[in-house]
């Protein structure tokens, strides 16, 4: 049972405390690779408000009950189960018991799954966000078992390939209703441009002119291939840049403006919508480690 005081938990970090002294949680930002962010965390009580990512959120509960509302239902992540939240799907997170929950999670760019599966395929989808598939559990372990250690590039590529195949085997197509093959060239061109222009103002007209594709078709193809809209992708890249600035010591206001947000309030609104907590709380949580 995890103690609800100031002691270190499993050598990973300190518990953040609420004003009343009750332990709220911590987040350990592990070493990340291209297209994959990994964390280990503990929370008691409410953890995340409703939010959505433009990545897969995949992981496992180490202890306790991780409860989350997802696609009209309530799912529970328990030890021995895999959690797979599809890109751009609204969800929240809270402890299912008063003991809290301890988990490891990684946020994986769906483009990596696409590439591993050969490209231009519907993204694998796991109904309910929970699976007990042994192959999927093994593949997840390949990415989180030694979360405190960096992974060599070849090891990481193998782990992502194994995960993509396991997702495909354990899930069902999320986009089987696609009528025509997506324009992969235009979508990848738009994605590369958005990644480079995250601190700038970008319009759909710019994307149309650059790719030669109608904005609506481009938006549909982008969603099929990358699991989210061009705007959401741009917003998440801005948030990635802002978080890097904060970790480097920038103030919240400075990070917001340099990352392309109109002001700190605009930044805070998008941060909370994407990660379920405010930038100020996220900064406190990572400073506990």
TrEMBL record:
Location of the HTH araC/xylS-type domain: 188-285
Keyword DNA-binding: yes
MF GO annotations: DNA-binding transcription factor activity; sequence-specific DNA binding
Pfam families: AraC_binding, HTH_18
Entry annotated with the keyword DNA-binding: yes
Keywords: Activator, DNA-binding, Transcription, Transcription regulation
Protein name: Transcriptional activator FtrA
Source organism (scientific name): Pannonibacter phragmitetus
Gene: tetD
């Amino acid at each position: 049972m995890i103690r609800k005081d100031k002691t270190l938990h499993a050598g990973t970090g300190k518990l953040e405390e609420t004003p009343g002294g009750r332990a709220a949680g911590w987040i350990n930002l592990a070493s990340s690779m291209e297209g994959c962010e990994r964390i280990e965390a503990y929370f008691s009580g409410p953890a995340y408000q409703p939010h959505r990512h433009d990545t897969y959120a995949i992981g496992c509960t180490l202890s306790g009950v991780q409860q989350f509302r997802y696609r009209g239902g309530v799912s529970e992540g328990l030890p021995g189960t895999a959690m797979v939240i599809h890109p751009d799907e609204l969800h929240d997170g809270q402890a299912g018991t008063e003991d809290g929950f301890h988990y490891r999670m990684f946020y994986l760019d769906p483009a990596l799954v696409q590439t591993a599966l050969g490209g231009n395929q519907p993204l694998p989808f796991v109904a309910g966000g929970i699976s007990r598939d042994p192959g999927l559990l093994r593949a997840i372990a390949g990415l989180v078992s030694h979360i405190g250690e960096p992974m060599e590039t070849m090891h990481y590529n193998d782990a992502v390939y194994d995960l993509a195949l396991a997702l495909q085997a354990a899930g069902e197509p999320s986009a089987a209703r696609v009528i025509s093959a997506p324009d992969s060239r235009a979508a990848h061109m738009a994605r590369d441009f958005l990644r480079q222009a995250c601190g700038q103002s970008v319009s759909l007209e710019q994307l149309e002119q650059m790719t030669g594709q109608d904005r609506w078709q481009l938006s549909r193809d982008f969603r099929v291939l990358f699991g989210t809209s061009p705007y959401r992708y741009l917003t998440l890249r801005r948030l990635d840049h802002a978080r890097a600035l904060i970790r480097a010591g920038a103030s919240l206001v400075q990070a917001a403006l340099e990352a392309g947000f109109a002001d700190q309030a605009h930044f805070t609104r998008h941060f909370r919508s994407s990660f379920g907590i405010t930038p100020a709380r996220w900064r406190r949580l990572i400073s506990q480690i």
